[in-house]
Amino acid sequence: MSIQKDKIRNLVDRREKALQGGGEKRIEAQHAKGKLTARERLELLLDEGSFEEYDMFVQHRCTNFGMDKQHFDGDGVVTGCGTIDGRLVYVFAQDFTVSGGSLSKTMSEKICKVMDMALKVGAPVIGLNDSGGARIQEGIDALAGYAEIFERNILASGVIPQISGIFGPCAGGAVYSPALTDFTLMVKDSSYMFLTGPAVVKSVIGEEVSQEQLGGASVHASKSGVAHFAAESEQEGIETIKRLLSFLPQNNMETAPLRPTEDSPARVDDALNEIIPDNPNKPYDMYSVIRSIADDGDFFEIHKDFAKNIIIGFAHMDGRSVGIVANQPATLAGVLDINASRKAARFVRMCDAFNIPLVTLVDVPGFLPGTQQEYGAIITNGAKLLYAYGEATVPKITVTLRKGYGGAHIVMSCKQLRGDVNYAWPSAEIAVMGADGAVNVLYAKEIKADPEHAGEIFEQKKKEYVDLFSNPYQAAQKGYIDDVIEPRNTRWRIIRALTQLEGKRAELPAKKHDNLPL
Ligand code: HXC
């Protein structure tokens, strides 16, 4: 064999070895846990044959605890770029078969390299996490590596979409990289995230808790809101990431791709004329409205199981990607509370950062009262949503379907928060508060002074209030609402407004950065 052929054979052999990660036995162990390997995950994620791998031959430089005798090419993470539906993405997937995917300094350098490349060319970064945390043998070097990744997460924030998939353990400070990214997806029963594990929890506060109870996918998707998605399986998780990407642009200088549809932009839906119950205290399902206005009835929900009183997610409208925010009258009457406010605020800011127009559907009776909410800083948290809408410069279209009371009416993208086009249905009630509450405040003395006719007085005053305020026309007369529309026409009215707003330019005053009430 010639020297050159020998060298090529050597390359092929080295590649072959690197592809084995931590070796056959550890791959089997990974499969036995019902988990895929890093490479198998990337194979599912990326278009066939599109993966361009970097740093396959990188090895760690640690010599502590006999580590100089343990080397695996690639060092616990597979990195590179590829395409998803033909669009460029940068990826890293931690390889649990090599030292439990633990983060060495060299591993962090590999991850930082793809993050730097993604930022340079303006393409999303997708990280698939499956790691035992900082590589213990490397000590402070591993911590420095984490910090370098975090810094890049921060610099890339709002410039390129960043998506984290949690496909195994993600503990300690490692959780902060996903937390800094735009979206976190977890896989049920095989992934967990927490700052301190069950053993530490027990020793410090004496609480007995399992990994799943402490930081499993269901917990983070429903209680903490740390996870935007909880997938049933790794395969479903990867499909969800791909779908999510289809609503996002490559970077903050671009718009999301158009998705052609056969669904007519002029479609009307007579069912919407019937959807609001006669009794204002009766709920209806906001999902029906969203599906009615979206292309092909297709709605991609985010944070589905967290703060269900507000709905957020993506849809296409005449092919355009839009962010939808909607109060859900079927859960807690659609009231705004701490979790609903911060859920929606982060979504609004994400849409604004990535040039995705906002469609807001309002039916909100107000903010949730009580000590629990006040002590938990509903003031600051509600202000986040107010702030997010007020600063957003993307096209903002608001439709008030029914209630739009008090501060909650303002917060939900009202005209004075630079709402571009604000519509109301004839069923809208835009007022400082509901009729019962208003009469009790305004006529408390009269009602108390005449207990015999209290009921009559109440009903009469309530009727006066309802006639005056429980409609959209006060707001429409003052131009706070641009038009009162027939519910059946909602889809085409929003699409027409989106078309008109395509050339929208709006600026914020020059500043170093804002001071959002965190
Ligand atoms: C080095 C590690 C490692 C780590 C796992 N391994 N975690 N090596 N550093 N942090 C190695 C194991 O020695 C083993 O090597 C292989 O990975 C697989 O681990 P197992 O324990 O056999 O797997 P499993 O039973 O599935 O348990 C997985 C695990 C457990 C729950 C993640 O390994 C674990 O508790 N690891 C330690 C977690 C931890 O405390 N990390 C530090 C957190 S603090 P072999 O050679 O046998 O295959 C932290 C700070 C970050 O991360 C701060 C950022 C700012």
Would you kindly provide a written description of the structure presented here, covering whatever features stand out?
46% of the residues are buried. With 518 residues, the chain is of the alpha/beta class. Strands 10, 11, 12, 13, 14, 15, 16 and 17 form an eight-stranded mixed beta sheet that branches. The protein folds into three domains: 243 residues, 2-enoyl-CoA Hydratase, Chain A, domain 1 (Alpha-Beta Complex), CATH 3.90.226; 194 residues, 2-enoyl-CoA Hydratase, Chain A, domain 1, CATH 3.90.226; 35 residues, no CATH class. Helices cover 39% and strands 17% of the residues. The termini are far apart. Hexanoyl-coenzyme A (HXC) binds next to α5 and β6.
Number of separate strands: 17
Rounded mean pLDDT score: 96
* Cofactors and ligands: hexanoyl-coenzyme A
| CATH C-level category of the largest domain | Alpha Beta
Label the overall shape.
elongated
Beta-strand fraction estimate: 15-25%
Q: Structural class of the secondary structure composition? A: alpha/beta
Quick summary of this structure?
This protein has 518 residues and is an alpha/beta fold.
Secondary-structure map:
Elements: H1 3-19, H2 24-32, H3 38-45, E1 52-54, E2 77-84, E3 87-94, H4 105-121, E4 125-129, H5 140-156, E5 162-166, E6 169-171, H6 176-180, E7 183-187, E8 192-194, H7 198-205, H8 211-215, H9 217-224, E9 229-231, H10 234-245, H11 286-293, E10 299-302, E11 310-317, E12 320-327, H12 338-353, E13 358-364, H13 371-375, H14 378-391, E14 396-405, H15 406-411, E15 421-424, E16 429-431, H16 435-442, H17 444-449, H18 454-469, H19 473-477, E17 483-484, H20 490-500
Parallel strand pairs: 3-4, 4-5, 5-7, 6-8, 7-9, 12-13, 13-14, 14-15, 14-16, 15-17
Antiparallel strand pairs: 1-2, 2-3, 10-11, 11-12
Helix pairs in contact: 4-5, 12-14, 16-18
The protein binds hexanoyl-coenzyme A.
